[in-house]
Amino acid sequence: MNTFIAYCGQVWRQLAGRYYRISIKQRILFSFIVLITLSIGAMGSFSYWTAAQEIEDNAYAGSQETVSKTTQLLDSRLNDVALSVQSLMLSDAYRKMMIDVFSHEVSNYYVHLSELQYVLSQATFNQPIIENVLIVTPIGDFYSTTQIRAQDSSFYGSELYDLSKEQPGGYWAKGHYDRLFTGDQRVISFVVRGIYEYPYTPISNVYIVVNIKESRIDGLLNQGGEPLGRNYYLLSGEGDAVVESRWPFRGKFPWRPMMAEDGEEASGQEHTYPYDGKEYLVNYKRSAVSPDWIISGMQSRDQLLGKLQRVQRTTLYVIGVFLLTTWLISNQLTSALLKPLFKLRRLMRRVEENQLSVVYESRYEDEIAQVGFQFNRMMSEIKTLIEDVKSKEKDKRQAELRALTAQMEPHFLYNTLNTIYCKSVMGENDDVNEMILALSQMFQIGLSGGKDLIPLEDELSHVRQYFAIQQKCYEDLFEYTVSVEDEELLACQIPKIMLQPVVENSIQHGFSDRSGGGRIDITVGREQGMLHICLEDNGRGLDAASVKQGMNTAPLSQKGYALFNIRHRLALYYGADARMEIDGAPGKGARTDLWIPLGEER
């Protein structure tokens, strides 16, 4: 239950969200449509419901009366059949036969068979509903010679005989195939024990079986009902078909009546029942002759209410006409009312496209016009603020870039001067001279006349001079290569001092645990319209995840700020267009990839 309530709440929120997102024009149109639809629909539905209820009540009352009359007629026919059997047992021919049965005399069998022909013919003449009569005795079976007895079927081995043991006073058997006479037709049977001398106790081994065709009972039930779309069925108290000639159901009757303890049908206001996707009016009446039999009337509700379909269609047509009229009127009305808002919305869209010179103009001085004038004042203030922000952001960006570049240069300078000092102390003057010359050339390139962007060729010369200095500091520690796949790339402008900090990390950290065999490879190429620079070493490697995490936040100390500095400067120059990736694993070296847009100077 809680899950269902939560689901309904979620659906309601989704519908409410969609309603809030539609335009005012659509809301007005939707409101008109809902109002008109509810008004006309409520009126039409109430009229339809009232008429349908009246028709249903009348049809139910008429069907109940028909069921009652049909039940009386059926009871009368069944009573007549029972009376015919009693008349047969009072005949002289029957009495003579019973004397021989009682004395087990079989010699007069054919005599009694001939004498009983008139009695049997009289019974079928008086009651045309009777198909055939069979008198079962220990000395033989007696029946009308106009009928052909099925000699291979014995009554004593049939289901009728088994039922006779359970109901010794006689009973009506539901529809079944006649196995006692040829023809294999479906019949309803009345089975009763034979009387020796009426009204004495019946003889247990003599039975009279009267068969009635199912089709005659069905015709009796449904005479006059078909034109009204009604069908009547005879069923047992368990819901099984007594007559299956028109039985349309799969299995038991779907509306088995609820019986009260006194045997009468339970009363109730509801008399419409669903079945197979349709609804039916159903009535019940119990037979007085065979209390286990029930006559049920059934009528399709759709067929009963067919005449109301015209009213329903007319209501739908009226709703359609009103909806179309509402749509046309609301379109004109909302267009006139919302025209100033649409104009203001077009101006706002132009503002979204950075056209900040738009101005709202209107001859009216209503509420919407006041909003437009407020929009003009807002745009004037926005343009002023934008100019101020642009100026301040430009100054801030230039200051931040120069601060980051200045942060890189002292860092390298400290390390290099320390190395030169060590060389001079040890008396390696030639190396000191070469290092000072290389440092001078590096500073010349690094200063670059105060420019923040330098050609890639100068940046590579800068890092080569750095390699020369470091090879003097760490003799035989490493080798390096610099390869460029396209000479035209050397003219590309990139931020200065981008490669030297990465090379310094490789030397200081990647080769810190070795005395030789190091290698650093720098490759420059073009990839998907961008300048791709790859720096790779065979040092002791790194934890790529930790390094990437450290690159996203400013370090708290001087240690480890180089990579963060490079990434930050790339973001300031190129935004999301440039990127930097670090890869590697402990013991497997490290790799740094830089992607810089071509042909852009930021």
Automatic annotation (TrEMBL):
Protein name per the record: Sensor histidine kinase
Classification lineage: Bacteria, Bacillati, Bacillota, Bacilli, Bacillales
Predominant place of localization: membrane
Highest taxon above the source species: Bacteria
Ranges annotated as spanning the membrane: 28-49
Keywords, in A-Z order: ATP-binding, Cell membrane, Kinase, Membrane, Nucleotide-binding, Phosphoprotein, Transferase, Transmembrane, Transmembrane helix, Two-component regulatory system
Membrane association type: Multi-pass membrane protein
Entries under CDD domains matching the protein: HAMP
